[in-house]
Write a structure and sequence with these properties.
single chain, FAD/NAD-bd_sf, 2 domains, 20 strands, five-stranded parallel β-sheet, Amine oxidase, flavin-containing, alpha/beta, Amino_oxidase, seven-stranded mixed β-sheet, FAD/NAD(P)-binding domain, Flavin_MAO, 7 helices, 26% strand, binds flavin-adenine dinucleotide, Polyamine Oxidase, Chain A, domain 2
């Protein structure tokens, strides 16, 4: 009989785990995703001809597992455009200063068609296994089977692989029997990468910022954006800028943040910045399927890849996976992929 595996979460980690299990064969697989879309912290929005990344964007040449996966699935990459000078705003009273980016910087790569192109390839292989709008609320383990409950259904399986950020897992799913105390404590203090970030993108008809030899790269001590990059598409015929906003702006309305961003872009690049076609943003701290809201300060990457996650729980019935549990590159897409390989080896 096929071993029944239930994966909680249809982010990169969950999808790669499902893909690898399917390739290995002899498993019955289900992936339960609470959201109405796949991807979790990968969120590409298609507006106009420039796919906008409101979640994960870049990969690097040392991300070997992710790069191999992209190659296997015929997912193409292109280099982040960095050609030209950058701008730096030190104080609000002064205009931004122009400077040269250091030569021989590490190249950041993007995925042609958006990071979601990788998700599309993975989910095509897994179509009948994926169930959207299925938020897991309860995990009950008996002697032989595990029972998993969502608001609509009950599932029975042999093994569960959770890919939720550990902090979210222990604060949002009810376990019977309870998880060991040390697992709860460590998970509750495990950092979820980018949980407080606000990412935005502004789409334009033309890359006017490239005039006068500027790259579109900008940094600011003043805000609202702290970092900015050219976010045009791989064919360079859909144009956009993308950046990160100061987290203190989360309580404002979208319209207030939009106006502040356009004002700042106008200060950096002139009047043409007001002529945008779309403004898109995502406030990740408001995303309840990523971030558990509490006021606890957790150091970036704290407990990522902790030793406690490296063994299964409840007699092999539960694996705690997801990028943050990876011993290498925890919090990044590379961590999500490596952890999926690691789980399969230990299943
Ligand atoms: C703004 C931002 C920028 C980033 N930039 C980069 C980058 O440039 N490069 C990089 O390598 N990484 C980046 N990252 C990190 C990268 O996105 C993550 O490492 C990776 O996507 C994590 O994948 P995962 O599957 O482990 O977790 P997640 O993507 O968090 O997936 C977990 C899934 O579980 C689902 N879920 C939650 N609760 C339940 C439940 N109760 N039942 C069922 N499903 C549930 C969620 O909806 C989600 O789909 C960025 C992240 C953000 C937010």
């Amino acid at each position: 009989m096929k071993k029944e595996i239930l994966i909680i979460g249809g982010g990169l980690s969950g999808l790669v785990t499902g893909y690898l299990l399917k390739k290995k064969g002899n498993y019955s697989i289900k992936i339960l995703e609470a959201n109405s879309r796949l991807g979790g912290r990968i969120y590409t929005k298609k507006v106009g001809s420039a796919p906008i990344e409101l979640g994960a964007t870049w990969l690097w040449k040392y991300n070997t597992s992710l790069l191999n996966l992209c190659k296997e699935l015929n997912v193409n990459l292109f280099e982040q455009q960095m050609e030209g000078d950058a701008l730096f705003e030190a104080m609000s009273a002064n205009p931004p200063q122009r400077f040269k980016l250091p030569p021989n910087q590490e190249i950041s790569y993007r995925i042609d068609g958006g990071t979601s192109a990788l998700l599309d390839k993975l989910s095509n292989e897994l179509q009948r296994c994926i169930l959207l709008n299925e938020k897991v609320l309860e995990f009950n383990s008996s002697d032989d089977k595990v029972l998993v409950k969502t608001p609509n259904s009950t599932y029975y399986c042999d093994t569960v692989i959770s890919t939720l950020p550990p902090k979210l897992l222990v604060n949002s799913i009810q376990f019977s029997p309870e998880l060991p105390k040390d697992v709860i404590q460590i998970s509750d203090k495990t950092h979820t990468w980018m949980k407080d970030s606000i990412k935005f993108s502004v789409v334009y008809d033309t890359p006017f910022w490239r005039k006068n030899g500027l790259s579109g790269v900008a940094f600011s001590n003043v805000g609202p954006f702290t970092e900015l990059y050219d976010h045009s598409n791989a064919s360079d015929n859909g144009f956009a800028l993308m950046g990160f906003l100061n987290g203190a702006l989360a309580p404002l309305s979208l319209e207030q943040r939009r106006q502040k961003v356009i004002d700042q872009l106008t200060k950096f690049f002139g009047e043409e910045a007001t002529q945008h076609i779309f403004y898109e943003e995502k406030v990740w701290r408001n995303e309840e399927l990523t971030t558990f809201p509490d006021n606890q300060f957790i150091m970036p990457h704290q407990h990522n890849g902790h030793i406690i996650y490296q063994k299964p729980f409840l007699n092999g019935k539960l694996f705690i996976s997801g990028s943050e549990t990876s011993k290498e590159f925890g919090g990044y897409m590379e961590g999500a992929v490596r952890r999926a390989f690691n789980i399969i080896e230990n299943l």
